[in-house]
Amino acid sequence: MTIADKTVLVTGATDGVGKLVARRLAEQGARVLLHGRNQAKGESVLDELRGATHNHRLMFLCADLAALAEVRALAGAVLEATDRLDILINNAGIGSQSAGVGGREVSRDGHELRFAVNYLAPFLLTHLLLPTIRRSAPARIVNVSSAGQQAIDFDDVMLTRGYDGTRAYRQSKLAQILFTFDLADRLAGTGVTVTCLHPSTYMNTNMVRIAGHTPISTVEDGADAVLNLALSPALDGVTGLYFNRRQPTRADPQAYDETARTRLWRLSLDLCGLPHGTM
Known about the structure:
This protein is an alpha/beta fold. The protein is built from eight helices and eight strands, in the order βαβαβαβαβαβααββα. The chain has a single domain (3-272), classed as NAD(P)-binding Rossmann-like Domain (Rossmann fold, 3-Layer(aba) Sandwich), CATH 3.40.50.
């Protein structure tokens, strides 16, 4: 099967790395489902990519990942649009602070915002799409994480005490890695691989600029790294690894703690309203 035969969902595809990943997939003829949270912007990007790539097998799906009900609606829209999903790229996320906002923020469900958007949303979306992904095997799930990681405090996961945006961001990104490793184990032998990565450091994205950092790398660097995990034939069957750009490396020690991973998995099922035993 060639990339032109594949269907790919890219979350956070209207800006930055996600937009470039979607464009490059479209250039290769893939059917690409682009997600974003702004309808007007999404339609504009859709028109732009169709014009630039001459690929009309593109679709935009709108959802605010800060609301679990919209995550469920997004999954429903994906399943209505396609009966197969060869690659899921969980790219959407928010940085350590929001523009013009200081202090702790919460999602529409009352969860700490970074934990909700960067972790709970892809956790739920992946679970809802997993039956279709499994039927499409060999298939890949790629979670875009970060080298910025901090161990989860299970006594205060929502950071109600001594809140710090950088800590919130780093905890949410480590949660993605714990999820990646756990899901990879649970899907062993199914033909579905699950990997995660730090795409590049301080890329020239809105997220980096809003956080007050000076960009030192490009979205091209990040897109190359993401597409390597999504498409490289050399990574066929490779699963349960964390990559720094294109190189496998070690994540925070908590990622290798099976007790912590199980605890996070169970908590996440509860927060998302999923039954225990759900794959």
